[in-house]
């Protein structure tokens, strides 16, 4: 989950999980909050979903990133750490659901980051421009803003470096300048040109 319930005074998402000790009934299912752990910029919730009048029960882990502004971009290092938390808890073959408020900007940026990291591990090569273009064939305007497109590149730069796959803070400025072509005018920077192409 990449949105907060309320942002800048507007409802962005309905709370679909209960508080601890207050099970929520939806249709034929009862949902209970088993555990909630709060970190600096995300929350991990373990939910138990029980189908009423049966023995069918399923545990669901929800990771809720709380530091991403609507139409904006997150701080890249916290974004990288959040994706690692998702990856650590993800079980291969299990469904992974990603959502924000509209399913475009934040959702697309996260899916792009996560998928491109996996592709890099499999093939050693990625093409951000082509990947975003392909995603936009299925969901118009995914990775909604130029700032989110740049954020995707910055997050990948942070994620690819070091044994922990994170750039040290002291090296981050240099890596970002390399991505943004140093002193080029903003409208001539590679990422700006790519974003305009992918938006057409």
Automatic annotation (TrEMBL):
It holds the Pfam family Y_phosphatase. It is an enzyme of class 3 (hydrolase). Keywords: Hydrolase, Protein phosphatase. Residues 1-159 form the Tyrosine-protein phosphatase domain. SUPFAM superfamilies: (Phosphotyrosine protein) phosphatases II (SSF52799). Gene3D superfamilies: Protein tyrosine phosphatase superfamily. PROSITE patterns: TYR_PHOSPHATASE_1, TYR_PHOSPHATASE_2, TYR_PHOSPHATASE_PTP. The keyword Transferase does not apply. Residues 77-150 form the Tyrosine specific protein phosphatases domain. Its EC number is 3.1.3.48. One of its GO terms (molecular function) is protein tyrosine phosphatase activity. Belongs to the protein-tyrosine phosphatase family. This is protein-tyrosine-phosphatase. It comes from Crassostrea virginica (Eastern oyster).
